[in-house]
Amino acid sequence: MIKAAFFDIDGTLLSFETHAMPPSTVRALAALRAQGIRCVISSGRPTYQLPPELREGFDAYVTLNGQLCYDAEGTYRSCPIAEADVRAIVGQVEEGVFDALVLQRERSFVNALTPRVQAVARQANLVYEPDDIARAFDAPVYQFCVFVEPGEEGVFLDKTTSVAATRWTNLFCDVVPREGGKAFGVEATLARFGLGPEEAVAFGDGENDLSMFGAVGTSVAMGNAWDSVKERATHVTTGVDDDGIWNACRALGLI
Questions:
Q1: Burial (0-12, 13-18, 19+ Cβ within 10 Å), 146
Q2: pLDDT per residue over 60-77, tens digit each?
Q3: 83-124: per-residue pLDDT in tens?
Q4: Which residues, other chains included, contact 34 with Cβ-Cβ below 8 Å and sequence gap of 6+?
Q5: Is the pTM of this model over 0.85?
Q6: Residue 169: phi, psi to the nearest 5?
Q7: How many CA atoms lie within 13 A of 129 on its CB side?
Q8: Which end of the chain has fewer CB atoms at under 10 Å, N or C?
């Protein structure tokens, strides 16, 4: 019996076209809650990048790809990137090897507003603040978004010792601690709730959702998901703009 549902945001809860939740998704979330199913955000976004409609009403938040997790009672997982790896990546940015978005607990910023960086901001309906990359040392860094092409991850992985890379877009990759990723956040949340993997379902569309899929008993790939994500899911639904969340919840007998 499903008792918890984990939701990616971009391309899953939110449409890339409207940057809002389809009305059917709003109804599905309300119906899940009415059934006593705990609803959890599981996203690469930090709290301050959540749209207003997602900042409340959920039982827990797995943010920054699982590195910072909290609920109404407080933070129950915090896993920033090791300082040595922060220094390595910052050094490459300063050398002009690539551009990067720095995500800390209270703020995020980019080293430069290049056309590629601005394209990502438009895709996610966000505004990126430019700042000196050295500000990365002001507070722990939970995630970098490194703007390299698919297949070029080795440029920074070869210079670091304890980070991993994953993607939800070809424009950049998420860089997180090696012991990070959505799976760790989901596992910590299930432990918080006293639930097992077989009692959870996860919804996603990008490569960074694959680890989350491995941490639950039932996984749902959106119709707009990457092919690699659909191949690993236990269920494939319609696209986010075609009532995908609602249709999956109905097909799985959750509502």
A1: buried
A2: 999 998 999 999 999 999
A3: 999 999 999 999 999 999 999 999 999 999 999 999 888 887
A4: none
A5: yes
A6: -150, 155
A7: 12
A8: N
Structural domains of the chain, with CATH = 4-78+180-251 (3.40.50.1000), 83-177 (3.30.1240.10)
CB 215, CB 183: distance < 8 Å: yes
Instruction: State how far the Cα of 171 lies from the Cα of 102, in Å rounded to an integer.
Output: 15
Question: For residue 220, which of 181, 176, 185, 254 has the smallest C-alpha distance?
Answer: 254
Structural element, H or E, at residue 84: helix 83-94
Determine the Cα–Cα distance for residues 246 and 240; give it in Å rounded to an integer. 9
How many other CB atoms are there within 10 angstroms of residue 10's CB atom? 22
Q: Which one-letter amino acid corresponds to residue 247?
A: N
